[in-house]
């Protein structure tokens, strides 16, 4: 199997020229190494002499759902602490007697739980994190569990709370202890970042309150509201850490590292769990748009412009990190770049 480095670089360079994003960092690899990597563009258009670098820190946005929540839930499942199909209310007192009590962890992981689609945490519950937690866990369902696949941030928020409940640890400590440090992901952490790391961070959207682009502070409003540590978003990471994570996912049994989750969790997660419902979902991961079952390419994206793909069948992973949110919330241009990039990385 090959990949076309020249075409990848041309594609990503064009994205800079078209102002899809100020800059990008990318890599393609297998279970043992990074086969190719590169950068294009600048960190910040206001500083045109500062190039994007392979060690640039990115606001992971919804990649947090994989790096922190999916990995931690997997560790708890492999420990035997969590049954994915047991109604939450049967073992979690905070949701017992409330609508969420009838939902299972598997339904949350497949986005079929029927929880509300929008976070709207401040509007509904105010600004106190304890009141927000109580409100989210006692909220009415949006529809019957198992009825439809509907992506919602709340699924990861609830699973993050569940992981904290089962482990007795805050989510950031759990993810660090069970996944990030064991895999050598020393630059992955929840924000806000200290000043020295924030200086290496790709800026995201313009903050209307300060008239500066967010840098080292989570873009996601829910994450900021909850002190930057939550299941929805809030983690920051670098290319090398994502490469380590994905290498481990391709060959956990032969890896020199040991995370809390292993091959059984990975295999189940990268298998369609939603039956005939569409769009198809694994556990938090989903089949990459435009790919076939034989190609076996799975993806998760982040709203800031991040994304990572993995194919156990091909023995390959790829990462594309951008700060497209610097320019716009419009998803269209980056979606085209992502799909073409994935084709080139897995051709």
Walk me through the structure:
The chain is an alpha+beta fold and 347 residues long. Helices cover 34% and strands 13% of the residues. The protein contains 12 helices and 11 strands. It has helices spanning 5-17, 63-79, 105-109, 121-125, 129-138, 153-167, 171-180, 195-198, 221-225, 239-250, 263-269, 332-345, and strands at 23-29, 34-41, 58-59, 189-190, 206-207, 212-213, 235-237, 286-287, 298-302, 306-311, 316-322. It has a 6-stranded antiparallel β-sheet with strand order 2-1-11-10-9-8, with helices on both faces. Strands 3-7-4 form a 3-stranded antiparallel β-sheet. The protein is globular, with a radius of gyration of 19 Å. The termini are close together. The mean pLDDT is 97.
Query: What global shape is seen?
Result: globular
Strand order of the largest sheet: 2-1-11-10-9-8
Query: H/E order of the elements?
Result: HEEEHHHHHHEHEEHEHHEEEEH
The unreliable regions are: none
Instruction: Give the tally of β-strands.
Output: 11
N-C termini distance:
7 Å
Structural class per helix/strand content? alpha+beta
What radius of gyration results from the CA coordinates?
A: 19 Å
User: What kind of sheet is the major sheet?
Assistant: 6 strands, antiparallel
Please tally the helical runs, counting DSSP H or I stretches of 4 or more residues: 12
Strand content: 5-15%
What is the mean predicted local confidence, pLDDT? Answer: 97
Percent helix among the residues? Answer: 25-40%
């Amino acid at each position: 199997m090959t990949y076309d480095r020249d075409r990848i670089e041309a594609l990503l360079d064009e994205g800079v020229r078209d102002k899809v994003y100020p800059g990008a960092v990318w890599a393609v690899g297998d279970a043992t190494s990074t086969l190719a990597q590169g950068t294009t563009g600048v960190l910040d258009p206001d500083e045109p002499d500062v190039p994007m670098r392979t060690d640039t820190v990115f606001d992971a946005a919804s990649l947090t759902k994989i790096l922190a929540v999916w990995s931690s839930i997997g560790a708890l499942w492999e420990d035997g602490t969590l049954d994915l199909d047991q109604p939450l209310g049967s073992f979690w007192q905070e949701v017992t007697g409330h609508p969420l009590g009838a939902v299972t962890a598997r339904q949350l992981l497949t986005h079929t739980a029927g929880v509300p689609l929008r976070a709207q945490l401040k509007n509904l519950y105010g600004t106190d994190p304890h009141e927000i937690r109580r409100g989210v866990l006692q909220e009415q369902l949006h529809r019957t569990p198992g009825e439809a696949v509907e992506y919602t941030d709340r699924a990861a928020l609830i699973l993050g709370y569940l992981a904290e409940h089962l482990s007795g640890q805050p989510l950031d400590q759990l993810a660090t202890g069970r996944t990030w440090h064991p895999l050598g992901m020393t630059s992955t952490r929840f924000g806000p970042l200290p000043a020295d790391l924030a200086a290496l961070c790709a800026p995201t959207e313009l903050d209307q309150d300060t008239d500066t682009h967010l840098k080292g502070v989570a873009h996601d409003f829910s994450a900021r509201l909850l002190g930057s540590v939550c299941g929805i978003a809030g983690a920051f990471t670098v290319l090398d850490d994502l490469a380590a994570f994905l290498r481990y996912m391709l060959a956990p049994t032969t890896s020199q590292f040991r995370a809390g989750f292993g091959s059984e969790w990975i295999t189940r997660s990268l298998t369609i769990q939603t039956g005939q419902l569409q769009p198809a979902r694994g556990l938090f991961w989903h089949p990459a748009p435009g790919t076939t079952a034989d190609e076996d390419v799975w993806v998760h994206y982040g709203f800031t412009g991040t994304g990572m793909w993995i194919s156990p069948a091909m023995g390959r992973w790829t990462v594309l990190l951008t700060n497209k949110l610097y320019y716009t919330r419009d998803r269209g241009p980056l979606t085209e770049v992502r799909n073409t990039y994935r084709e080139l990385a897995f051709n």
